Every structure is written in structure tokens, then in C-alpha cells.
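hey m, so remember when u said the C-alpha cells were messed up on ur end? i reran from scratch. heres the input so u can diff it against urs
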Amino acid sequence: MTDNVVHLFKDPITEEPTAPAVPLTVAPEPSPRSRPVRVFVRTRRAVVGAVKHDRTRTAARVTVRHGAYVVGGTRVTVRRAWDGRTGARYERLLRAAEAAGNYEAAGEWEERLHRFRSERHKRRMDLLMAPQHVAKSAAIGAAGGIGGLIAIGIALAIATRDPSDVFTPLMALIELIRLLVVIVQIVWGPLVAVGPFLALAGLWAVGRQRATAPQWALPEGKRSDDAGAPITPSIVVTALRDLGIAPLRNAIKEMGDAGAAMLGPIRIAGCGVEVDVTLPSGVTTAEVQNRRKKLAENLARHEHEVFITIPEAARTVRLWIADSGALDEPIGPSPLVTDTTMTADYAKGRAPWGLDLRGDAATISLYQRHLLITGLSNQGKTAALRALALWLALDRRVEFRIADLKGAGDWAMFDGIATVLIQGPTDDHVIDATKMAEGLVTEMERRLQAPPGTQFDPLIGIVDEAQVAFMCPAVGDDKRPYGGSKATSRYFMAARKVHNQGRAVNVLLYEGTQDPTDQNLPKLVREGAHTRVSLALGTESQSRMALGDKAVDGGAAPHLLRQGLDKGTVVIASDGIKIPAGQASITVRTHFIDTDDAAVIAQRAKDLRDGVTTLAAVEPSAAAVDALADIAAALGSESKLLTQEVLRRLAAANPGEYREWTFSDLRQVLEAAGAPPRKSDGRMVVDAQRVAQALAERADDTPESAAPKSGGGGGGQGAGVPTRRRIGAVNGGPAAVRVRRPARRCSGPSPTGRRAGRG
């Protein structure tokens, strides 16, 4: 060991260190045993490198590809020969028809199979008698041929006066036969040598035509280049087979190549094709729907280019498959823009809204139908809703009252068309929008009380960004919130009343909202709309809230639309638009009308009208009820009263307001006032003392400057009940309204526990 260590010291002359005094260890020489290991490693690396080299991979792909062409061509040729010589083809089609439950077709294929077998048996019997017929025919043909040649020879001998010419034709025939034998002897050798190669080339050509090689072995130009290829029955069947549904895969395998018997005719439908697929027993339509993405990939399409719906037939799904990239192309301008002479008819007309997936014009009837349109932000919701309003504006009979709770000017062109146009996102704008909705209720009730047979012009209330109204925290003087989804919410109750009875007298409500949830779009409101429309959404649960369970279970899937890429594409559930039989919804690509074009159309609508004064804010056009005071009036002199009797008396006193009230509505109002119902002798009653105390506390909480100047005791005119005055309603007629103090805002609890802040 000491021989392998070199010690370095200072130079005694220079007194400078020549190197650090660190011992350096010299590596020992490798042992002889490590050399084979190194050789093995180097060899392995060389082999792996050669295998992974591009040239090696290319050579392997070429070898496998052309070998697979030959093998596959042989398989295809043998299969064709087998099908041509046997009844295998008919048997496959027979099994396929039985599996699909089409017993009429099964009977027809069975009859064809029987006819094929009978004809084949006849041909075989004819072949057994063929040698006898051939021998007889050959003998007769030879005798006739020789006789004919001799006759020709006799004629030739007479003409030439040479008897030897009698056998000249016969000898010429013999010489021809000898020449043919010589030719065959010369050609036969090369033909035998080349024949196998020709047969191999033929098999290779068949395999190449049918692309029997694996995908990875195909040339770069042809590998996985079936995206956008025409849809054929075999492509559809293969895509269904590879969905990963075992019963479906097994059924198709049993059908063989005749699995296409599951398919109806492939029809051209707009910018794509449509086909009905009858599923075999044991496979549900829901299983296919849940694998939409995989089915689209199997069809060489993107997910958004394949739509699955459920037609009327049992165990059947309808596939609509778009041409590759067709849905990304624009659909062109709206007829409202291109046709400057277009007019509208609210009752009998249909609004041109866009194109369906088949490429047909999608028109929708708006007659006596409430409308709800929802979707994620910036997906074209306002533009789609505004396009319908612009068409309606071309009917001069239609009156609009519009609340745009976004306030970005999207509805500014309706100034001069709408009688009310509220634009802004604040609580004050929500309060005005609520008063507008309550005005719709008042007009609806006036029309309902008109003599039977009275005709009314349509009155359309539009609330864009309605979620702002439902989520508004503002609270009025009577402690009723403007927003919310309970019976105490003024906007909610107004929307609900219009939904209940408005369509009968042409008072309609159109709402646009974002991200439907139970908080910003209550269940009763969304289910009150006759036409439910959705753009792209985030989740399936939101789709169910927007369109309903029936539509989503039937194939509607706005949550599968591409956010940002499918702007303006809507899914509609309504009887106002033509929907294919058996479907619960339809997908429409709406026309986009930009703000400039919308202003031009709006000007045409203004020219049809005599001039409309548009109000930016409204007073309530109806008597805003004081529910707590009305409950006190219903109690009268009773100390307590059954809740059922209270509801009956309220409905008798004000049927327009309380006819639809339930026990839940009554309980919510009383609980909000601090006088909840209680049990007495096992039954729920309303305590008059609690109600009176709640009214007194509310009066004490009201400042003197804002307190009502008149009011009575228990008969519904107690403290806190506002006085009434008459003003002109929004539509020009008189209406009874209550003068209320400015609404109170929720800005958090004050130190005393009461709500602080005043708007």
C-alpha cells in the first residue's frame, strides 16, 4: 500500500509548497474479470442503438407492412371465396336480424339461404352428369368437325381437280394443334415459375387496398389519417364494438361483419350524417350516452362533433356525426340583418334564430311562452336573447319593459321602443327591476279581471342577468327582501305570479341568468318557463337545473359544449321549436347580431311605432301588500286562529295576492316578523298577540319622519301600513300605488341587533 502513495513536501530551496500535502491514491489496474462485463455492456448498447435507430424502425415497418398486406389479402380472398361457395353470408345476416329483433328480415334471409342451397344442390347434381354429357358432346362435335373438314376438302379437290386436297383442311387442323402444343411447351415453364409471384402480388394488392397492416406500420401519410373520413356502416359498427361495453362487443362479434344490421340508413343531415342504432339485448342507451367521448374518438371525430339522442324506438340511440371541422365554421348573418323588409307576428310568426345541426333554419314561436336562457358568462346569452326581442320589436303591438342588470349598454337600442328600460347592476336598479316585475303582475291581474273575450296586446318583461335580482341583499321598509328565493322575496314572488297566470293574457317574462344554481335561479322560477334554453355550462347538475331532468336524460348536454369555442350554440327544450320526434331537446347555432346591426333593426322597429317614451325608473304600479298587516286584519278580534283559516281569509280578502299562498308562505312571513305560528291542541295556529306585538315593534323601529300619517288599529290599518295615492301607471293607465320610504339595505347587523344602513 505504501508504494501507491506519493508524498509531496516543500521545496527546501524555495521554501514554497509545490503541492498540497494531500495523499493521492492511484487507482488500481482493473482486474481481468471486469473486461467481459465491459464488452457485454458495450455490445448491449450497440444492439439497442441499432434496434432504436430510425433506419431500423423504418425497415421493420416496411417488412411488417408488406408482410401483413400478403397475410391480410390472403385472409380477405379466402373469406370472399368461402362466402361465395357457402351460405355463410346468409347465416350471418340471419343471426344479425334475429339479434336485432327484426324477425321479418330474419325470415327473408332464411328464405334466401334455402333458395341458395337448393340452387347449389342443383348445380352439384349437374356436375355429376357433366362427364357423360361432355363425352357425348365431344364425340358428336369431333364427328361433325371431321365431317365438315372433309366436306370442305372435297369441295377444294373438285375446284383444284386434285384428289389429295380432300385431306388438306384436316391436315391444317392437325398442324394447328401441333403448333399450339409447341407454344404451350415454351410458355409453360416461365408461367409456372412466375405464377406464384403473380398470385402473391394479387394477394398483396388486396391487402393493401383493405389496409390490413397495423396502424403503426402504415406510412406516415396514411397512418391515423381517417379523421374526417366519410362515415360508413363498418366504421360505425367498429366504433360501437370498441366502446368497452362487453355485451355490445360480444353481440357484434356473433353477428360477424353483418353487425351493420343494427344500423338504420345513414342519412345526410346538414353538415353531417345521422343514423339510428338498435342496440342488442343487454345494452342500455345510457351506457352508450356515457361513452360519448370514446365513441367520438372511435369515429375519428372530436367530442363536440358527435351528438347522441334517444328517439321513440326502444333500445335505440340516434347518432348525429358532423363533418370534421364543420361546426367551427360560421353560419352566416341573421335574416333580420339581410332582409330589411322583414316583419314579425307575435301570435302566428316564428323568430329566425339560427340553424340546427342538420343545417336547417331553426325558427321558434314565442306566443304565450315564458322564456329562460342561461349559460356561463361571455357565451352569447345576451346576444341570443336580444335577437328574439329584436324580432318581436318588429311587431308594433308588442310592449317591452326591460331591466338590464349588467348595465353595459347591450339593450340601449331599445330606448324609444321599451316603455321601461332599466340599466345598471346596483341595488337601486334591482329595486326598480322588482317594481317593474310587480307592475307586470298588476297589469296581469287587471287583464284577468276584464270581461271574457277581451283581447290584449302582448306585454313582454325582460330581465337580463336575473341572478343579480335573486341575490340582491336589499330589504324594504316592511322587512321583505327584494332578492332571495323565499315567499318573502318581492322579485321572486312577482316572477312566480307572472309564470302562474301571465301567459293567458299575453303577459310574459323572459329571464337571462348565469350559472344556474338554487341560489341564483330558484327551482319554482326555472320550472315556470315554457321555453328553457342553455348555452355552455360547467356541470351536468347545472344542465339539469337549466333544462330539466327529462331533457338531459334524453341527450341534452350543454355542459359538453366547448366554453369559448361554442359561443352562441344553445340547447333548447320547448314546444315552440320543431324538435325531431322522440327527442326532448334540440341544439341550435344562433345567428349573432352585433350592436351596430341591432341598432339598425331597432330603428326599423321605432319607425313602425308612433313614438314611445322610455322610463329609466318606475314607481310600483300595484299596491304593494303589507302581509303582516293583512294577517292582523284576517285575525280580527280572534285571539288565535288556525293557519288554514288565516289562509282562507287572506285569499278571500285579496285573491290576486294570496290565492296561491301555502302554509310555508304564511310561516315564512310570520317567522320573519318574529311571530311564528305555534301549536295549540295539536294544531298550528296564528297568535294575534304575537302579530300585534310584531306590528308595534315595527312601528317603533320606523323614524317619525317616515312614519305613515294615517293608520288604524287591528283592522289592517295599524301602524306601519303606508297610505295610498293615485298616479299614472307605466302603460299610461291609472293604478293604485303605495308611497313607500326608501328601501333599506342590508349592511350587516348594528350593535343593537337591528339592520343598519339606509339606501
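this time it looks ok to me. Residues 103-160 form the longest helix (58 residues). if urs says something different then somethings off w ur setup not the seq
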